[in-house]
Design a protein that fits this description.
Blueprint lengths: L8 E3 L5 H4 L7 E6 L2 E7 L5 E7 H16 L10 H31 L3 E6 L4 E4 L1 H7 L3 H4 L4 H5 L5 H14 L1 E9 L5 E12 L4 E9 L1 H15 L9 H18 L2 E10 L1 H8 L1 H16 L7 E4 L4 E9 L2 H15 L3 E3 L2 E3 L2 E9 L6 H17 L5 E3 L4 H18 L5 E10 L5 E12 L3 E3 L5 H7 L2 H21 L6 E4 L2 H4 L4 H12 L6 E6 H6 L1 H13 L3 E7 L6 H4 L6 E4 L1 H4 L6 H17 L2 E5 L4 H9 L4 E3 L7 E2 H10 L10
Parallel strand pairs: 15-16, 18-20, 20-21, 21-22, 22-23, 23-24, 24-25
Antiparallel strand pairs: 1-2, 2-3, 3-4, 5-6, 5-9, 7-8, 8-9, 10-12, 10-15, 11-12, 13-14, 17-18, 17-25, 17-26, 18-19
Helix pairs in contact: 2-3, 10-11, 16-18
């Protein structure tokens, strides 16, 4: 068979030293071809002689005869017959080894995922493997004979290719990332190794590369996830801290100011717990979009927690610029959010710290902005506050209170006080409102305004609310045992009210204490009801069906919709104290109270005015048609034991009786 049709294997002279000890200079080449081993020997004047030895004949013991016939023609004289046989077998063994290596190497290159191309020293492609065609789109026929640069390099990347080729010529090797172009024009990123190989006859360049576009994309995705919020796509805490550190250094060098804002959504936990995480996530995404529209290009915004955001404003001339942005943010969040067919309203509280006056390090600025945020929440929420040094002492006190609050339930430090509700027509007792107090060791009696918000933030409000429910029902049962049926109203937090199992817990507690449901009234604020009106209607309807009273507290301070209000199964509407205070001399308050009384009558609900402190206020409420009043004029909140004493003494309720 013709030798040219087989791939080439190169033997060094030492491989055949026993055979060519006295033979001509040069190399021996051999390939495998079917049942033959083919050998080519360079001889005199560049002459090559092909020798084919039949494998079967060799194995049949005829090697000696073949060698005796062939080797003398090559100038090799056999010393003895046995030696000839030995040398022939050794030659066959070496040919088998080299042939196996060739087959293995060819298979690896043909099936490799990594592309390779061999070019001459001018960059013209000599040969390529199948992976080259798979990655680039060029067939072997298209690639061979073409310029490697022309095949792979876009015009904008030609300068980089020339730099690679220059380094390759100088160093003999180049390795690194290169941007290439496929046949269809698509760009891809490759990890590439190029090596110069000097053979006897010519210089070759071996180029190996693999497509790492997807790998880099995945790495970039992982890197993005490490520094960005997965829901909103905003920078996370790590990235905003890094940007803040950079901005601080830049501001320090240039003598500039910067503003750092901490933002927290008001009542977001209630929405998330009551309407579900899908609705909460949708709101967070929209909040992020609205915040972004309030900022300059140079500003940064990040989401660092559930409903917590950070705004970084570098290069601000004075605090007024921060005020302008804070006001834009408040205005942007005020419009309702339309999610899943529901209109949801939330607020946002903002704390602001300024560099360098409020801190010159990342940790200090972030801590002080967070402290200012808590001050904004304490001020009534949906507002902003700048950090003041005096806030540090308040922050420390708040942390101590939070730690103490964790153990207050376990140590039985909570108490219920009761404030009477008096009917103006008969001056009789309509019922009482249960108000929680915390008898904190070494601090005395702590009113709810000082710890309820903290309990909501820490998640303790649910356990505290359950304790209030249990204690109120226990007290009702105790009074009944003394012959007194006193109706008790308890305030229910948003977290409690939105819990689907709340009505079940109420029913279980009433059954456990064996009290009539009519002696328990559930009070919820107007804002809690309007957070999710449809769910509120369902929850209140169930409570009402159980026989409980249902009251809306602080009426007139929220965003009530009369279309929803008329659907609520209310038994009572409570007029907020803000409208009762000074009603005898405030025409606007008087008009609002008259309107609320009218709404209550139209809905068939009783009316209770809170916060009546003077005889003039009580008299005006009586003339306005308000049936029931609650306030200091008649009694302050008091412990359960004192209430019975107060009832015994209050023979003339028109005069204030102080326990």
């Amino acid at each position: 068979e013709p030798l040219a049709q087989y791939p080439v294997i190169r033997f060094t002279r030492s491989d055949l030293a026993p055979l060519l000890a006295n033979g001509p200079e040069g190399e021996v080449q051999a390939t495998a071809g079917g049942r033959f081993l083919v050998t080519a020997l360079p001889y005199h004047d560049g002459l090559r002689i092909a020798v084919a030895i039949d494998r079967e004949a060799a194995m049949a013991g005829t090697v000696e005869q073949l060698l005796q016939a062939l080797l003398p023609r090559l100038g090799i004289v056999l010393v003895a017959s046995a030696l000839g046989t030995l040398i022939g077998l050794r030659l066959l063994r070496k040919l088998d080894e080299k042939t196996g290596q060739l087959v293995l190497a060819g298979s690896v290159l043909a099936n490799a995922a990594e592309a390779y191309a061999i070019t001459d020293d001018g960059g013209t492609v000599v040969t390529v493997n199948p992976a080259f065609s798979d990655i680039t789109g060029y067939s072997a026929a298209e690639a061979e004979g073409a310029s490697l640069r022309a095949l792979l390099t876009a015009k904008e990347d030609e300068a980089h290719f020339r730099d690679i080729w220059r380094e390759l010529c100088e160093q003999g090797k180049w390795q690194g990332e290169a941007r290439h172009q496929r046949k269809d024009g698509e760009s891809f990123l490759a990890w590439q190794t190029m090596t110069v190989v000097h053979a006897q006859e010519a210089t070759r360049v071996v180029c190996l590369f693999s497509d790492i576009t997807d790998l880099r994309r995945k790495e970039e995705h992982i890197r993005h996830q490490a520094f960005h919020d997965g829901l909103t796509g905003l920078p996370n805490r790590l990235l905003i801290q890094d940007r803040l550190a950079h901005s601080i250094e830049l501001s320090r060098r240039q003598g500039d100011r910067l503003a750092l804002m901490f933002l927290d959504l008001d009542r977001f936990k209630v929405i998330n717990d009551s309407l579900g995480h899908d609705v909460g996530d949708a709101i967070l995404i929209e909040v992020a979009a609205r915040l972004g529209r309030c900022l300059r290009r140079s500003d940064s915004i990040a989401r660092i927690g559930g409903d917590e955001f950070v705004v970084l404003q570098p290069d601000v001339a004075n605090p007024n610029e921060a005020v302008e942005v804070a006001e834009k943010i408040l205005a942007a969040i005020t419009p309702s959010f339309d999610v899943a067919g529901q209109e949801i309203r939330i607020g946002i509280s903002i704390g602001i710290a300024m560099f360098p006056v409020d801190g010159e390090e990342v940790g200090t600025l972030m801590k002080n902005a967070d402290t200012a945020l808590y001050e904004a929440k304490a001020a009534g929420r949906n507002t902003f506050r700048f950090f003041l040094q005096s806030m540090n002492a308040e922050a420390k006190s708040r942390l101590e209170m939070e730690a103490a609050l964790q153990y207050a339930l376990e140590r039985a430090e909570f108490e219920l006080f009761f404030q009477p509700k008096v009917t103006l027509e008969s001056l009789g007792l309509e019922g009482v409102e249960a108000l929680i107090r915390w008898r904190r060791p070494n601090h005395g009696l702590v009113p709810p305004l000082q710890f309820i918000a903290l309990a909501e933030e820490t998640g303790l409000i649910g356990r505290i609310g359950d304790w209030v429910l249990e204690e109120a029902c226990r007290q009702i049962a105790e009074w009944r045992a003394c012959g007194r049926d006193i109706k008790v109203a308890i305030n229910v937090s948003a977290r409690q009210f939105q819990d689907p199992k709340f009505a079940d817990r109420v029913a279980d507690t009433i059954a456990k204490r064996d009290i009539p449901p009519s002696l328990l009234e559930i009070e919820v604020t107007e804002s809690v009801v309007m957070t999710a009106p449809e769910k509120a209607i369902g929850q209140l309807t169930r409570l009402r069906a159980m026989g409980l009273g249902v009251a809306v507290d602080d009426f007139g301070t929220g965003y009530s919709s009369l279309s929803y209000l008329k659907r609520l199964p209310l038994t009572c509407i409570k007029i907020d104290r803000a409208f009762v205070r000074g009603i005898d001399g405030d025409r606007e308050n008087a008009a609002i109270v008259a309107a609320i009384i009218g709404v209550g009558r139209a809905l068939g609900a009783s009316i209770v005015a809170e916060g009546a402190e003077t005889a003039a206020e009580v008299d005006h409420l009586r003339r306005a048609g308000c049936p029931t009043v609650q306030g200091f004029f008649f009694a302050r909140p008091m412990p359960a034991a004192d209430l019975l004493v107060w009832l015994a003494q209050a023979t003339r309720l028109s005069d204030p009786v102080w326990p």
